[in-house]
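Our collaborator T.R. sent over the components below with a one-line note: 'Predict the complex.' Nothing else. No constraints on interfaces, no templates requested, no preferences about which chain binds where. So this is a plain run: every listed entity goes in together, and whatever single assembly comes back becomes the starting point for the next discussion.
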Amino acid sequence: MFTDLTDEKLVEMAVRSDPEAFGEIVRRWERKIFALCFGMLGREDDARDAAQEAFVAAYRNLGNFRGEAKVSSWLHRIAVNQCLTIKRRARTRSEEFLDEETHEDERIFVAAAAHSPSNQTEQAERNVLVRQAVGSLPVDLRQVVVMKEFEDMTFQEISDTLEIPLSTVKSRLYTALKQLRSKLERVPMEIG
Amino acid sequence: MRNGKDSCLFGEELVSYLYDELPAAKRHSFEVHLLDCSSCTAEFADLSVSRLGVYEWHRDEFAPLSTPHFAIPYTTPEPTVSWLDAIRAFIFTPARLSFAGGTLAILVAAFGAFYLTNIDSNGLAGVQVPEPEQTAPKPPESVKTADEVAYDEYREEKTLVDPGKSPITISKTTAQKAVVVRAKGAVKKRTDGQLAARENRQTKAPRLGTFEEVEDKSLRLADLVADIDSYRK
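Returned assembly:
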């Protein structure tokens, strides 16, 4: 019944007569919003909470959606705000979260793509380091990286969602990848 | 936009090629350039490493996760109700209807009882006139001389002053003397009760339709005259 309708039409129906039309919007975007929250926060439980709060907040503010922006843009904006709120909350509780403070003195060894280790432990450790590095990026750069890698969105889709020019999207992604590279640079191995 | 190194390629093109979003026409020329430009190749390699790290993190930690169920607190919108419908809904409920009916019945019964208790014997619900005090009926009015009026007042006075005693039979001579004494200026103050009693007899109208026969025990002029005549005889 709702599958053929656009996001904007579903929002309109949810506001006027059928609140469950919003359920179709949730079904369409739940995976991507969950992925966005995971990439922004780095933890499954926090990502689940952030995504849940984002959808609830979106439902409660359906009346405030004026249709000037896309529903995807609106949802992403709400989700990123929820991620920042959760991160701020965790910081006040002094939880060890995504390490914003990069270990400046530590240089992390990352194997080149051609020599990927088969050891799962090393891979897991590397993933932890990458997670920390992504978490240390500025929000606008981090969001573009996550949307590209976790949501598998095209540059044009990211541009439409974030309502920024296409060249800005590419520029931010380039800068983010360069900063990640500097955090994950190769170090000489110790000779023991 | 130039990258920080001595690369002849813009960062946008590098990123587009990295994510396979470079248009087909430009891709070939870019690949040819990469074969000849080491700085661009190094730049491209650095970006590839970063992208690989993020890709592997996504593949290993996020991809295996199932999408959680998100609960939405749906609320059914209330239908728009006009003010008239709201009033109808408020008034015409069974409880309120029965309460209103019972109240109305009680009021009707109370009013009927009030009406019936206040109706008079002639069927007229007349205005209630406060009943006058039970006093002796006023003797039939007759034309009296001034002396006779003064005597009545004097006699009345004596009766009121001595309430506990039986009415005094006063001879006419004595009454005339009393009148003379009074005429000379002996002012006797009447009590408030005396004044009020006089006013009551003078102002209160008899109640219509009622006549009560009360035994008249007061002294009448006719009786007094009869007594005087008897004395003379």
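Summary for T.R.: Chain B touches chain A through 38 residues (CB under 8 Å).
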